[in-house]
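Quick one:
INPUT:
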């Protein structure tokens, strides 16, 4: 049994190498570079903002906090109480959106699949808005749920229902239609947007202010309780993605070939749907709708390191984290002391890239 499994894995890997070349060495170098870059971006995130904090002050504050020394009250409040949870949340959300996009693209075997474009984020947002406006459902209250813990659970449920519905609609006889997927995603997003609009209409002034800024995407509300609330959703999602990397590689070759190599196709599909729901649901719950990260990051990395998900998924996680931290730095410095919603920044970057993908698929551009 073990020999058969090893032969299957070797067969899938050889097919991928034959079709795209073996770029594992380059992938490892890129992943190492992205790790170093993430450290640099995280430090910049801790220093950027309306209150000027130097790099040396950041390191001194972190070092004193670790050894239990006396820290400057202002620096400690800004670095540890405000910017550190925001930085950690940006890393988690960026990594989740990028990995979720890569998994969706492998599942549908299409570079245009993205949680934001095909309605998954809208479904998650609808469920989260429902909790914000109408309150926590009675069953969750009975289980002792708070707003911090109920929002990720509701958004996960909304993303799961949306992703599963999209897959059922777009797949026939084991084949997924790209046109059907995009049209169904547009329809789901429109229905979710209409329902969200009704909830916004009946919201009070405080809820309306929160929802307006949240719907454009923001990390401004980052706190350590919010980070703790999404960890039970995001960490299992990352683990699930890592465990099914081989299965996703098989799906890239087609479901029939994947089945012939011994891959449990249906189980991989189910795990992929659950992983996307976990990642997108938790991210939307704490940061609102942030688009285009899931489509830009995987596509660029496939051009650089190839389609092997053993390397692509960790590279996507690191690149997504770097991209969202960079976008967040721009959002809170470009119009300081005010903040530009981060969803606007990612849309400015991702919109032209999405148009490029469409034009490339139509053969209107060659590069």
């Amino acid at each position: 049994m073990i020999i058969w499994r090893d032969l299957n894995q070797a067969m899938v890997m050889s097919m991928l190498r034959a079709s795209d070349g073996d770029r594992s060495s380059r992938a490892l170098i890129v992943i190492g570079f992205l790790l170093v870059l993430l450290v640099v971006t995280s430090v910049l995130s801790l220093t950027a903002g309306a209150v000027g904090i130097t790099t040396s002050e950041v390191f001194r504050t972190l070092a004193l906090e670790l050894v239990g020394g006396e820290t400057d009250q202002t620096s400690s409040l800004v670095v540890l109480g405000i910017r550190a949870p925001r930085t950690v949340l940006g890393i988690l959300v960026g990594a989740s959106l990028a990995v979720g996009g890569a998994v969706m693209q492998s599942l549908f075997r299409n570079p245009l699949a993205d949680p934001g474009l095909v309605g998954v984020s809208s479904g998650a947002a609808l469920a989260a808005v429902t909790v914000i406006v109408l309150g926590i459902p009675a069953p969750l209250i009975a289980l002792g749920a708070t707003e911090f813990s109920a929002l990720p659970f509701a958004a996960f449920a909304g993303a799961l229902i949306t992703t599963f519905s999209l897959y059922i609609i777009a797949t026939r006889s084991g084949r997924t239609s790209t046109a059907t997927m995009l049209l169904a995603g547009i329809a789901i997003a429109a229905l979710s947007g209409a329902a969200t609009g009704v909830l916004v209409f009946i919201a009070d002034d405080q809820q309306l202010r929160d929802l307006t800024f949240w719907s454009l995407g923001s990390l401004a509300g980052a706190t350590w309780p919010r980070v703790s609330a999404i960890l039970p959703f995001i960490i299992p999602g990352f683990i699930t993605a890592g465990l099914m990397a081989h299965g996703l590689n098989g799906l890239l070759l087609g479901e029939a070939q994947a089945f012939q190599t011994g891959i449990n196709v249906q189980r991989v599909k189910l795990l992929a749907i659950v992983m996307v729901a976990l990642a997108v649901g938790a991210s939307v719950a704490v940061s609102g709708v942030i688009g285009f990260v899931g489509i830009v990051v995987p596509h660029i990395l496939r051009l650089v390191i190839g389609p092997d998900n053993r390397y692509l998924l960790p590279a996507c996680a690191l690149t997504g984290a770097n991209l969202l931290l960079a976008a967040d730095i721009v959002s809170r410095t470009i119009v300081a002391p005010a903040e530009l919603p981060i969803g606007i920044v990612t849309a400015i970057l991702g919109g032209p890239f999405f148009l490029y993908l469409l034009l490339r698929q139509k053969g209107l551009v060659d590069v």
